Amino acid sequence: MAHILSAVQGSQVDVVPVRRALVSVSDKAGIVDFCAFLSSKGVELLSTGGTAKALRGAGLTVIDVSDYTGADECLDGRVKTLHPKVHGGLLAVRGNEIHEKQMEEQGMKPIDMTILNLYPFEATVQKGAGFEQCIENIDIGGPSMLRSTAKNHAFTAIVTSPSQYGKIQEEIESKGGTTLGLRKQLAAQAFALSAAYDSAISSWFAGQLATDAPVTARVYKPEFPLKYGCNPHQKPAQILSRLGSDLPFEVKNGVPGYINLLDAANAWQLVLELKQATGLAAAASFKHVSPAGAAVAVPLNDTECQAYEVTQETKDTLTPAALAYLRARNADPMCSFGDFCAISDEVDEATAKYLKKEVSDGIIASSYTPEALEILKSKKGGKFIILEATPGYHAGEIEYREVYGMTFSQKRNDVVITKDHMKEVVTANATVDDSAVRDLIVASIAIKYSQSNSVGFAKDGMMVGVGAGQQSRVDCVKLAGRKVRTWYLRQHPKVLALPFKEGVKRQDRVNARVRYIEGDFTAEEKARWELQFSEVPMPLTDEEKDEFMKSSTGISISSDAFFPFRDSIDHASKLGVTYVAQPGGSVQDKQVTEACDEYGMAMCFTGTRLFHH
Predict the structure, then answer these.
(1) Positions marked catalytic
(2) Which of 6, 22, 383, 483 could disulfide-link to 465, CB 3.0 to 4.6 Å?
(3) Global confidence as pTM
């Protein structure tokens, strides 16, 4: 068993004045101003290389570390600060007679603060540098000083980021030095940085050997607390970022919750990929981490305008972003009630005005015009959640998830479905026009971010039915198919002509139309439903519904995995499906293809499974 060291005793102090600081940074942002402040407080500055040059260039007095130690830098700069006078000055316990005597004997001086960054190893790797150059960018002296300073945080402060300068400066100004509480925080951040740095090196090195890393360290930085997790009893809860990486968004308004952020993360990826694949403004309406709707900006026809309650005045003012969200919201307006939405493009005033009248929890978008931001900030009594996506955010190639004490890792599903995935048409009907390709792409990307098993139906650039989270694929088709049927029947003349009383709210009208189409009222429910109309509507009969559904055509369906049997195709045929996309690869592919041929459908094999859990 390893020998466990006892604690070394010394003085116990809270505020430690900073009399000497060692400065060696690669990121020089703010360093001159910070060191000028320290110098104005009488702090002696020790430094090396380029940092010393920058500080002298600003007129600051600096002592080279080599002059302090009496040992020149050597070995191409590999040895600069690895010296007893440096680490003794950092590690000496103040108030310990033995330490103080040994420091005096060896000419060591106490160093109260270390300001450093580590060599940019990860950036070197990302630039595609060769093995030898990556090795040269493994910092040795920096982590050594970092750990020495952090270990002795009872007396020394370790500063590892320009973001810390302001807080430290305030504390020195107000209290005359650094407090123990601040030094502990700085030490914790420093050890986390050291762990992440070593993990990156370890993982990269193992990759060079074509073996798995023996240990993977993931270091997270707490960003903000959450009220609770999935449920109110799941406390505490918080959002963390990967150390050294920003969050994928900035909170512009409101207080997002756990499920809000899960919705936002999935919805944002969905609309980004739709935009990338189609070149059109895209939007998504999410509930419980699956899309209730998703769409791209395709113009509305007159019947759709009537079904979606879009006046000619509104239609004339619709921008691409507003049009995309209007379509996404109207795929399944009952399920979109209280949604979290995502829009690929800048949110303008027209989009904000449309969104303001819908019941929604929040939005994530690329940006907002000042007018749109003010409109949305006033929604929900000022509590509407507004997130602005981080430009150029990179989530990393590998993603991790903890479940019941186990950590899963996998390559992110970063495949983007494009028209190239629709080239392999395996049916006798090989005609898949551009609008059909677009709809198959919309459906495929939407189900990529739906809980599996999932299938999705699309028409005119919008999802018209999503069936998610079912164990049986044909049940997914039936679930989504019911939504398709409801969506299409909302355009039936009898539905469009429902005589609502003045003052019936928009969402109540939406719900009433759906219940009229479904028709399975209880006696009590029907009595309440009838109160919304100036005259009681005649029922929409099953025969009328079936007859109207015969006019449905040109609908696309996509499945996140292969169809194992023809039953899904048989059911889809009842809904006006003309185009099919699926990965293929089932032993029943021939049977499924024959079913498509019987109904005159065109089917593409994408070759890409899209399970999402």
Answers:
(1) 151, 288
(2) 483
(3) 0.81
